[in-house]
# Entry
Amino acid sequence: MPNTLTCVYCGMAYPEGTPPHGSQVLTDHIKACEKHPMRQAEATIKKLRSALAGLIGASTREELEQMEACVRLMPGVEADKIAALNGIHALLETAGGPAGMIRCAACGEWTKEPSLCRGAQGIAGGAAGPGGLCAGGGEAAGLKPALKR
# Structure
């Protein structure tokens, strides 16, 4: 009698012969399984994102990018500006960007390669820093505030 592979969360039986790892059938089921722990994580992210968007006052990519520009230009307490920028960056990060792209925190450009962002090329006031990254200290691996405490 062959072993039947089943989902440990909902008990769904996979087609006979499904390998225990690396199968598209498994990947597709994980994305849709209502009892998989990722559903709770996704719900929590959605809830926190909604609360943060309420505090920041923006939620779409365009609104957030406009808000970021305003926060950077307006006078204010640096700690408050850093907190607002961190919130904006968290919302941008969880909103997702163009497929296969990463965002340079220093210049804000979406790029496939850190060295191709506008700041690294010296465009719009940017200047190449060590390793071809923006002189503003940006790291294309993630969004980090350009303002530091």
